[in-house]
Amino acid sequence: MKVPLIDLQAQYVSVRESVRAAVDRVFDSQQFVMGPEVSRLEAEVAQYCQTTEAIGCASGSDALLLALMALDVGAGIEVITTPFSFFATGSAIARLGARPVFVDIDPHTYNLNVDRIAEAITPQTRVLLPVHLYGQCAEMNPILDIAKANGLVVIEDAAQAIGAEDHGRRAGSMGLAGCFSFYPTKNLGAAGDAGIITTSDPAFAAKVRRLRVHGGLTEYEHVEVGINSRLDALQAAVLRAKLPRLDEWSDSRAEKARIYSELLEAAKFNFKLETPVVRNGRHIFHQYVVRVPQHRDGLMQHLKTRDIGTKVYYPIPLHLQECFVYLGYKQGDFPEAEKAARETFALPLFPELTQAQQEYVVKSVEEFRP
Ligand SMILES: *Cc1c(COP(=O)(O)O)cnc(C)c1O
Fold first, then answer.
1. Is residue 1 part of a domain?
2. Do 184 and 132 reside in the same domain of the chain?
3. For residue 133, which atom of ligand 1 is closest to its CA?
4. How close is the Cα of 49 to the center of ligand 1, in Å?
5. How far is ligand 1, taken at its centre, from the CA of residue 369, in Å?
6. Is 91 in the pocket of ligand 1 (CB under 6 A)?
7. 172 CB within 6 A, ligand 1
8. pLDDT tens, N- to C-terminus, the chain (370 residues)
9. Cα distance between residue 236 and residue 242, in whole Å
10. Which atom of ligand 1 is nearest to the CA of 286?
11. Domain end: 221, 243, 265, which one?
């Protein structure tokens, strides 16, 4: 048996016809950049995410960049975020000349440790940028309280969390804005790069809409310097074809995660393995990540010999990246993020994963002899 980390083919066969019809629609229209497909997707995603507006852009990375640009984040400003995320979370801050200020993570959810945020706030802090890692929301109530008490803006990096919920509120609807990625392997994946920003603040939305088209009021009138980060109609059409299936897919991921945890907790190993902790709320399981404190690399190697795909998200925390040496962080500054980088890895998880595949994965884990 072979179990890939993710199987996009399996999903494609189930949406092939509607995706191809959407692609034909765009080619027949010959309108490739923005246009009605994009504005319809924006309305549909806003509704799905419980916001009044959504603004499409070229990628999740650009969604973060545009949201921070719309807040005039730049030199002299600090943005508090997690060191345990995809690189784009930190780079969007640094790219604008602002300073990423990292706060360690909770060892169970891998999201920001909300008890450590207050001590990181300085007079320069303007934004809190929590990440909803692996499809589970960061603890938004304390984050929103801290922001309110300190006059800070909350931007959610919801790239892995479309449809996730915290106390009934959807990811991307709790802060001033939510930043989403439609990278092909995300829960809702495009046929290439794509992203979107959700918000219910009309002035903020208007500014983001300008910034994605070079800061233009009209085609040739520029009030500010933006970037070119439009969403392609092809991507929007493909995403619209897939969006109606998203809840079914995310529910299926969550169900398979439940099965993994049940099987793994019943299995017998002579080493320690921790299954994911689900807080109150809807976890959409973009990834199913386990912690193996002693023998992570050996176990991954063993699973590879059994044709099982695994991956470490993320092997090097942001504060230890070479490009961020100038920030002055060092090994030991964020022990939980560093431990997670050493001890965790993702098992295969996608909506079409079969029970037999899951049993094979767990049996193979059981067979591992450290
Ligand atoms: C995927 C991802 C991004 C960036 O999205 P792209 O569309 O790949 O640019 C940002 N943050 C997180 C947490 C992500 O997982």
1. no
2. yes
3. 13
4. 17
5. 35
6. no
7. no
8. 999 999 999 999 999 999 999 999 999 999 999 999 999 999 999 999 999 999 999 999 999 999 999 999 999 999 999 999 999 999 999 999 999 999 999 999 999 999 999 999 999 999 999 999 999 999 999 999 999 999 999 999 999 999 999 999 999 999 999 999 999 999 999 999 999 999 999 999 999 999 999 998 888 888 899 999 999 999 999 999 999 999 999 999 999 999 999 999 999 988 999 999 999 899 999 999 999 999 999 999 999 999 999 999 999 999 999 999 999 999 999 999 999 999 999 999 999 999 999 999 999 999 999 9
9. 10
10. 15
11. 243
123 DSSP 8-state letter? T
Return the DSSP state at 274. Answer: B
Question: For residue 106, what is the DSSP state?
Answer: P
Is 162 within the bounds of a domain?
A: yes
Q: Which of 63, 29, 10 is nearest to 233 (CA)?
A: 29
Spatial contact of 130 and 81, defined as CB atoms under 8 Å apart: yes
Q: Give yes or no for residue 157 CB within 6 A of ligand 1.
A: yes
C-beta 260 within 6 A of ligand 1: no
Tokens of 311: 């991956």
d(CA 16, CA 226): 36
Please indicate whether residue 171, judged by its CB atom, sits closer than 6 Å to ligand 1: no
Ligand 1 centroid to residue 181 C-alpha, Å: 5
Cβ of 348 closer than 6 Å to ligand 1, yes or no, is no
Residue 2 falls inside a structural domain: no
Q: Take residue 125 and report the two structure tokens written for it.
A: 């802090």
Neighbouring-strand partners of residue 346: 289, 311
At 158, list the tokens: 């919801």
From CA 349, how far away is CA 253, in angstroms rounded?
Answer: 7
Q: Print the domain residue range for 199.
A: 8-103+111-243
Helices marked H in the chain: 8-29, 36-48, 60-70, 87-95, 140-150, 202-211, 233-242, 246-266, 296-305, 335-343, 355-367
Residue burial 25-36, b: 16+ Cβ < 10 Å; e: rest: bbeeeeeeebbe
